[in-house]
Amino acid sequence: MPERWNDRYSVFLELPEVSYCLQKYVHLLPTQGTGLDLACGLGQNSIFLSKQGLTMHGWDYSQAGLKQMERHCSLQKIEVNQRYIDLVKTSWPNQQFDLICVTAFLDRALCPQIVSHLKPGGMLVYQTFNQVTAIAGERLSKPRRSQLLLSPGELLMLFRDLEPLVYHDEQELTPLGHPLAGKAFLIARKPKPTEF
Fold it and tell me: How far is residue 101 from each of residues 8, 10, 59, 144, 184, measured CA to CA in Å?
């Protein structure tokens, strides 16, 4: 699998758009502390969140992608702590974060780890593909494998230990061409321990 992503990133690519939910709900996000961009790709979300004031960490298992990310960070004079890591097969560093964002990546088995790596009061921003493959008769560009696609309400279930702040999944009712066509997102907060 890493070979496929290394091949994809073997030629220079422009930075993709920052995740829609990060841009639209930036007012909900912390402006200090540490953040983790999980499966960070070329680093557009890491760069955006760094500019909001967070000390960002970007984890990915494509060395070619991380190399391009380093170049993009350098061009924008942004520093992101990058880590080459197989998120599925490797133990995660013993760190907790004020914010974790995940875009266009889904491995349900990792959801408990994501929650455990959030600090109490920390925020999760998760945007990825739902099961809708076509809108108004037009096929959407997205993964074909069903295990990479969310069923209705699934993000809420996967992160039921968090307090949901914003959830969006219009399924096939999303207008074609909208940034969330074929996608769902959740912004949620890890509860702080109750004080007695």
Answer: 22, 25, 11, 23, 14
Q: Read off the tokens for 10.
A: 């073997």
Amino acid at 122: G
Q: Which residues pair with 187 in a beta bridge?
A: 125, 166
pLDDT in tens, 38-48: 999 999 999 99
CA of 41: how far to CAs of 22, 131, 139, in Å? 16, 22, 24
Q: Do 17 and 44 contact (CB within 8 A), yes or no?
A: yes
Instruction: Report the pLDDT value the prediction gives residue 196, as an integer from 0 to 100.
Output: 52
Distances 20 to 4, 23, 26, 39, 83 between C-alpha atoms, Å? 25, 5, 10, 16, 24
Contact 124, 185 (CB under 8 A): no
The contacts of residue 39 (CB under 8 Å, 6+ apart) are: 59, 60, 61, 87, 102, 103, 104, 105
95/13: higher pLDDT: 95
How far is residue 110 from each of residues 41, 57, 107, 118, 133, measured CA to CA in Å?
Answer: 18, 17, 6, 13, 24
Nearest-5° angle of CA 85, CA 108, CA 188?
A: 95
